Write a sequence for this structure.
């Protein structure tokens, strides 16, 4: 979603797009470590039927992204 700069904002935008285009289901595509927070954001936005898929490779940036995502998940869980 190029129109948003946070996962939370993207989930809100997806709800709008689902209504506009009458989507019933969606699929989130991201790195493996980000899918849990995406799912949390979708659930908070009211999206109940979402699948997911992740890249099948490990990148060097994943080494710092996994710990960052741990803290980001709990920020979303408690403050979004």
């Amino acid at each position: 979603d190029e129109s948003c700069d946070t996962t939370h904002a993207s989930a809100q935008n997806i709800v709008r797009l689902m209504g506009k285009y009458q989507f019933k289901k969606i699929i989130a595509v991201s790195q493996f470590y980000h899918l849990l927070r995406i799912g949390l954001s979708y659930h908070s936005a009211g999206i109940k039927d979402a699948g997911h898929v992740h890249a099948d490779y490990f990148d060097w940036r994943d080494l710092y992204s996994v710990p960052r995502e741990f803290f980001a998940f709990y920020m979303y869980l408690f403050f979004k």
